[in-house]
Amino acid sequence: MPRPVLDEAHIHPAIRTRLAENRQAIVREVMAAIAASDIVVVGMAMNPFPRKARKLLDHAKLPHRYLQYGSYLSRWRDRNALKMWTGWPTFPMIFVKGVLIGGANDLQQLIGSGELKAMLQPD
């Protein structure tokens, strides 16, 4: 089931460009990292869950790219843009081969089940 997103017909034409361009630099930065790396972890300082995800990947000897965007009080608008883009409400956001797999606990389950290794196999 797709998540609801306000359709363009319900956005006044005068603000469509502002909406389309709002904080898109950070979204493009994450998209570029996802295109360039098999595993990308998007996180923030002082949050233990991005650190947990990185430790899980290090322990599994899986190379990954880490992008950190501020802490609880800084860069929250940038992080909010990422949340709006993905629909994922928390950090980290972990992408495997371009697919959002969730957060640290979701990563742990995929590692434990062996599904992560299967996802990383060449097509």
From TrEMBL:
Q: Which PROSITE patterns match?
A: GLUTAREDOXIN_2
Fetch the Pfam families from UniProt.
Glutaredoxin
For this UniProt record, give its keywords in alphabetical order, as a comma-separated list.
Disulfide bond, Electron transport, Redox-active center, Transport
Q: What positions does the domain Glutaredoxin occupy?
A: 47-101
Q: Which InterPro entries match?
A: Glutaredoxin, Thioredoxin-like_sf
| Family (UniProt) | Belongs to the glutaredoxin family.
What protein am I looking at? Glutaredoxin domain-containing protein
Species per Swiss-Prot/TrEMBL record: Variovorax ginsengisoli
